[in-house]
């Protein structure tokens, strides 16, 4: 299934608007012109009646996302050094692919992006390492209105960067400002059932002088989702 017509044939009978494809993955009719493959909350492949599809990772460039796109799109994404490629060019969210597999969107050459990615990786890795050391030293405070405004605010839908974008993170990297609200956002964004419990565990680890696995994992995931935007903003 790689075209609107094929997807439309799958959505029939009682499942004319929605059908499960595999784990956490559904085929859903959006309107008379579009049918989407939805992984969790992201339409990773959207088939258009006008003989093309749109690809989107939703910021989650995971093996599962790549697998679903490669399974249901008429093109193959491959990964190298943490970057996604299509036909030797950098993958871009919301790029258009024809039903025959031709890339319709002008994609970037990877050379400059590879250099920027290496720099971002170093900056983020150092910040996370130092943030975790800050926690281990028992210095983590609770989020407050005195925190960075960009890290504190989110819109009504919980979009964490919609207010200020990602540029303010560079100031935190440079100033070694370990923002409690940033970590709290990362915990909430990770989808824990009880984020307050995770926060308490992280604080307890710090008070005992222990490394916090939850802090490390959560911060890595938070910045991994923003890597493309950080590279573009560098």
Descriptors for this entry?
234 residues; alpha+beta; 2 domains; three-stranded antiparallel sheet; 43% helix; 17% strand
Summarize the structure.
This protein is 43% helix and 17% strand. It has 234 residues and is α+β, with helices and mostly antiparallel strands.
Task: Give the tally of structural domains.
Answer: 2
Q: Tell me the number of strands.
A: 9
**Euclidean distance between termini CA atoms:** 38 Å
What share of residues are in beta strands? 15-25%
Plain-language structure description:
The chain has 234 residues and is α+β, with helices and mostly antiparallel strands. The protein folds into 2 domains: 4-98, no CATH class; 110-233, no CATH class. It contains 9 helices and 9 strands. The strands form 2 sheets. Strands 1-2-3-4-5-9 form a 6-stranded antiparallel β-sheet, with helices on one face. Helix 3 packs antiparallel against helix 8, helix 3 packs across helix 9 and helix 6 (180-189) crosses helix 8 (213-225). The longest helix has 27 residues, at 110-136. It is globular. 26% of the residues are buried.
């Amino acid at each position: 299934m790689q075209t609107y017509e094929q997807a439309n044939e799958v959505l029939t009978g009682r499942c004319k608007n929605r059908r499960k494809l595999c784990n956490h993955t559904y085929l859903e009719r959006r309107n008379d012109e579009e049918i989407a493959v939805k992984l969790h909350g992201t339409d990773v492949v959207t088939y258009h009646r006008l003989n093309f599809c749109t690809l989107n990772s939703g910021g989650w460039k995971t093996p599962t996302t790549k697998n679903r796109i490669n399974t249901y799109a008429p093109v193959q994404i491959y990964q190298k050094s943490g970057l996604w490629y299509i036909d030797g060019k950098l993958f871009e969210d919301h790029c258009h692919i024809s039903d025959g597999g031709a890339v319709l969107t002008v994609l970037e050459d990877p050379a400059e992006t590879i250099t920027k990615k290496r720099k971002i990786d170093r900056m983020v890795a150092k910040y996370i390492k130092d943030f975790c050391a800050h926690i281990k030293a028992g210095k983590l405070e609770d989020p407050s209105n005195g925190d960075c405004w960009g890290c504190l605010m989110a819109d009504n839908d919980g979009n964490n960067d919609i207010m200020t974008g990602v540029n303010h993170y560079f100031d935190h990297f440079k100033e070694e400002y370990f923002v409690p609200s940033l970590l709290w956002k990362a915990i909430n964004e990770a989808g824990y059932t009880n984020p307050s419990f995770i926060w308490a565990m992280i604080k307890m680890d710090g008070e005992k002088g222990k490394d916090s696995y939850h802090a490390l994992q959560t911060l890595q995931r938070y910045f991994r989702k923003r890597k493309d935007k950080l590279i573009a903003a560098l």
